Amino acid sequence: MRKDAVQQDPFKSVSIIGMGLLGTSLGLALKQRQLAEKIIGVGRAGSPSLQIALKRGAIDVARTNPAAAARSDLIVLATNIGVFPDLFRAIAKGLAEDTIITDVGSTKQQVCRWARDLLPRTARFVGSHPMAGSEKRGPEFARVDLYSNAVCFICAGKAGRMELAAQRVEWMWQQVGMRTLRVKPQFHDRWVAAISHTPHAAAATLINLIQADAANLLRAAAGGFMDTTRVASGDVEMWTDIFVTNHLAASKSIRTFVQLLQGFERAIRNEDRTAVREFLQRAKTIRDQLPQRQGGG
Amino acid sequence: MRKDAVQQDPFKSVSIIGMGLLGTSLGLALKQRQLAEKIIGVGRAGSPSLQIALKRGAIDVARTNPAAAARSDLIVLATNIGVFPDLFRAIAKGLAEDTIITDVGSTKQQVCRWARDLLPRTARFVGSHPMAGSEKRGPEFARVDLYSNAVCFICAGKAGRMELAAQRVEWMWQQVGMRTLRVKPQFHDRWVAAISHTPHAAAATLINLIQADAANLLRAAAGGFMDTTRVASGDVEMWTDIFVTNHLAASKSIRTFVQLLQGFERAIRNEDRTAVREFLQRAKTIRDQLPQRQGGG
């Protein structure tokens, strides 16, 4: 057995900070597959989430101080991204040398920058973005299979010690059913700007477009509209964090989207059947090749 | 019993022109509720649709010449809109005085204009737009309940004779499960531009936006993206007809959509948390109030 092989045994202790949909679902999945001997859940004092997570068996112990996570084998940040700086500072002090830190945040450049700036130099941070979720939030919607058959992006440094940490994190996500995909933070943020943030911006805009006529229009909304705008029901704070932490890539992607759409609008305005058909045909051809729906979010 | 009361008895004969999803589903629904003594299906020679519709019991008789429909009590145009001018000309000659003509087309101004210009002066045309459908096309996907619990827009003139025809058409749609909503063609086209055509344009654009990176991105596409872009799989010819026949309202609605989205993009670019949150919150509040998914399309 090579000395630097990736550990494949369960974690002795895992701390999950944030008992929302993602954190609680991860606890359930780790428990079911016996991937952690002990799971510490960290949540806000006074919020019912911790008790729900305990009752559902997603965690063994409930804590309200993030510093309690500092000595676990693995720490997973599962709050909104906006809270990450405070959390990094809270765990920085007592951090054990071998502790691996990861997260489930939807943007990666800003998060990796915070980890670099706020954690000790020797800290082993690996960015994760599991492409799973739902517009439903909270531990009551947690599912043991939330992470099954979806992709998890992994952002990690190249140094040997970091590489082992990255492989350990990849192993964990694979154990709960994900396909992992290594990517640089800036590429990640550009990708999710195109496949997640711009669709979200479009969905929210479609809703705000009909606002004035809402009363009349609501009754007539057909399934297509409901599907196209479903993500606009997503958690507002979470999405505000996403757009703000990924503002460069998101705004660039939206501007490209607008340019494309304006070209299509011109074709419509000019009654240019050929151009309209060509635009729709290109989209249909690609859309028909997409794999069937996988996971949530 | 008032002399001008709306007939509530079954049609002696109904002709449905176009044996796609909508036409075949209507045949099935009329049959199930015994609303037509005889249903004539009109389709293209050589296409298997007519035989499928016959075999599924959606029609009693198969014809390939639209002129065969001219003497029915009710004629329903259920082809793509682009074929309507030819169909109006074909049925215009032998049209019986009491025949009511309607359609299932997704835009109404252009269709009502064609009806006025191409049918005899005395013809009783009532525009219908059942907000039902699916990105799946063809008689093999037809369902007896396709029209249940969805809205049907009705566009009709005000003259007494037209009013009775409109009520008869409304009665028919209500019998197959729809809620009817009377609306002027120009209002209809503005509404559907906002709730159907602009979402479709956005979905197609979202797909074309990722085209270059498609190979990498396809694996990572999460459920949100799949939902948001589902309608982009819709029939290309049908949607080309829709955008071209509704080009004024559709292009205006898309331009308003672009302006709204550009405002949101500016807020993101400026990292204006308050404006980003406010935009998302407004959309979520409205979206959460929308009724649950109803019918298809």
Write the layout of secondary structure elements.
The structure is a homodimer of 297-residue chains.
Chain A: E1 11-17, H1 21-32, E2 36-42, H2 49-55, E3 61-63, E4 74-77, H3 84-92, E5 100-103, H4 109-118, E6 124-130, E7 151-155, H5 160-175, E8 179-182, H6 185-210, H7 214-218, H8 223-228, H9 236-245, H10 247-269, H11 273-289
Parallel strand pairs in A: 1-2, 1-4, 2-3, 4-5, 5-6, 7-8
Antiparallel strand pairs in A: 6-7
Total domain units of chain A: 2
- pLDDT < 50 stretches of chain A: 293-297
User: End-to-end span of chain A in angstroms?
Assistant: 39 Å
- Strand proportion of chain A, as a percent range, falls in 5-15%
Number of helices, where a helix is a run of at least 4 consecutive DSSP H or I residues of chain A = 11
What does the average pLDDT of chain A come to?
A: 89
CATH topology descriptor of the largest domain in chain A: Rossmann fold
Q: Which sequence of SSEs, written as H and E, runs from N to C of chain A?
A: EHEHEEHEHEEHEHHHHHH
Quaternary: homodimer
Strand order of the largest sheet of chain A: 3-2-1-4-5-6-7-8
Helix content estimate of chain A = 40-55%
Fourth-level CATH superfamily of the largest domain in chain A: NAD(P)-binding Rossmann-like Domain
What gyration radius of chain A follows from the Cα positions, in whole Å?
21 Å
Q: Which class of secondary structure composition applies to the elements of chain A?
A: alpha/beta
Shape of chain A: globular
Which second-level CATH architecture of the largest domain in chain A applies?
3-Layer(aba) Sandwich
Could you give a short account of the major beta sheet of chain A? 8 strands, mixed
